[in-house]
Amino acid sequence: MSVRRALPILELPKKTAPLAAAVRPIDACRPIYAVWELTLRCDLSCVHCGSRARKARPDELSTAEALDLVRQMAALGVREVSLIGGEAYLRDDLFEIVRAIRAAGMLASLTTGGLGVDASFARRAQDAGLQAASVSIDGARATHDRVRGVDGSFDAAASALGVLREAGVRVTANTQLHRANVRELEPLFEDLVSLGIRGWQIQITVAMGRAAEHADLLLEPYQLIELMPAIARLKRRADEARVLLWPGNNVGYFGPYEALLRGAQPLGHACSCGAGRTTLGIESNGDIKGCPSLPTSDYVGGNVRAHALVDIWERSEPLRFTRDRGTSELWGECASCYYAEECKGGCSWTSHSLFGRRGNNPFCHHRALELLARGERERVRAVALPAGLPFDHGRFELEVERWPDDDLEEARRIARTGEGFLSRSPTVTSPPKLNAPRRKRRAQVSA
C-alpha cells in the first residue's frame, strides 16, 4: 500500500470534554515533574521533531499568565519544572519565569539544542536560579548536524555544555535513538563524558510529527535485539564514569537487562505509562496534557485560560486514563504478554503515534526476544502520513515476518552474548538536507 497523507486539518479552537463533576480518591495523586513548552519557536529544524517546532504558536501564554501558572503548579505539588521548546531561550521572559519557579520552591531545569547558548546566557541563567540543563545531542558530529538540520549545531551543543558547566549549572545530555546513530552511541558517550555530563537520558525516536514523515529514520522493532545489549554495555561504562544513564519510558521492557538499567529506580524495573499520575505536560498556549509528548488531538484535557490547573488535573478524562488503568485496552502481543498486568503496554506515546490507539507497543525487548525464539520478527510500515500539525501522527501497520536464515543465528548470538550488531540492520536511505549555518539568534532575555 502506498503511503498517503491525511486530509488537511484546520487548527481550529480546541474543544475538550467537560470536566467530571466529582473528584475520585485516585485523583488525589500529584505530579512530581512538569515539562513546560514555553514556546514553539525554534532555531533548529530537527527532522525527528514531534512538535514540528519552528514558529511560535499564535496564542502563547503572556508573561502574566505564565507566572500565574507557576503559582498553580506549586500549589498542585509539582517539585520540578523542565522548560523546553521549541527553544525556551527564545522567550524574552525566560529568566523571570525561572526566578518565579525557584521562588515558589520548585526545581528549575532547561532542555535545549544549545544553538544560542553562550557564556553570557549561561551566567545569567545560573544567576536566575537555573539548576540543571540538558543539551540534546543526537549522534556524531555529521549525524547530529543532519538530524538537527543545521550545520555546526553539534559544535554549538558541545559548547553549550561547556559554558553551562563553567557557570555552575549541572549539565546532562539527552539523545534520540534511531537508525542513523545506533552504531555511534558508544563513541558518542565517550565524547559526552569528556564534556563533563552528569547524566544521559536516552529515548527511542517516535513516529510523531516530522519523524512520521521520515520512516526510514525510525528503528524497526526487531532492532531492540542489538540496541538493548548496546545500552547495557553503555550502562556499565556509565557507572564507571559516574554518569547516570537514564532510559526513557519507551526504552525496554522486561528483558535480561532490566535490573541493570532500572535497578536504581523506585520499583527497580519499568512500569506502565506515568502520564497524569507523576508527570504533567504543558503546551505553550496553556493546553494541559498528562505527558508532554502525547498527541494534542487526543490528550489535551483543558486549558488554563478556561479552568484552574488543579481542576484539569483532577477532573479531566484525558489526564485520568492511566490512574485506574487495567489491561482491557491491550491488544496484539501485549494482550497476552506475561508482564501485561505490570507494564500495561508501556509508553502510550509510542503506541498511539504508531497505531492511533494505545495498548500495543512493538518496541519492547522482551517481545523481540519472544518472537526471536519463534524465528519471527516485527516491522512497522507507514500507510498514512500526518497532516502537518504540532504533535500529530500518521498511521503505521505492523508486519510479522520470519527472520531470514542468514540473519537468524546472528540475532540469536547477539541475544545470547550481549555483544555485536546485526550485520544487515536497516539504514537511513534518504538523509535530510543540511541547512547552512545559522547565526545564533536569541531574544533579548530580560535580566
Describe this structure in words.
- This protein is 31% helix and 15% strand.
- Mean pLDDT is 92; it is low at 6-13 and 439-447.
- The longest helix has 18 residues, at 224-241.
- The chain is globular.
- The chain has helices at residues 63-76, 94-103, 119-128, 141-148, 153-166, 185-194, 224-241, 258-262, 296-299, 309-315, 317-320, 340-343, 348-355, 365-373, 405-417, and strands spanning 4-5, 33-37, 80-84, 107-112, 132-136, 170-177, 199-204, 244-247, 279-282, 287-289, 302-303, 376-385, 395-402.
- It has 447 residues and is α/β, with parallel strands linked by helices.
- α2 links the parallel β3 and β4 (107-112).
List descriptors.
447 residues, alpha/beta, ten-stranded mixed sheet, three-stranded mixed sheet, 15 helices, 15% strand, disordered C terminus
Tally of alpha and pi helices: 15
Largest sheet data: 10 strands, mixed
Helix content: 25-40%
Indicate the structural class. alpha/beta
Order of helices and strands: EEHEHEHEHHEHEHEHEEHEHHHHHEEH
Q: What is shown here, in short?
A:
This protein has 447 residues and is α/β, with parallel strands linked by helices. The chain is built from 15 helices and 13 strands.
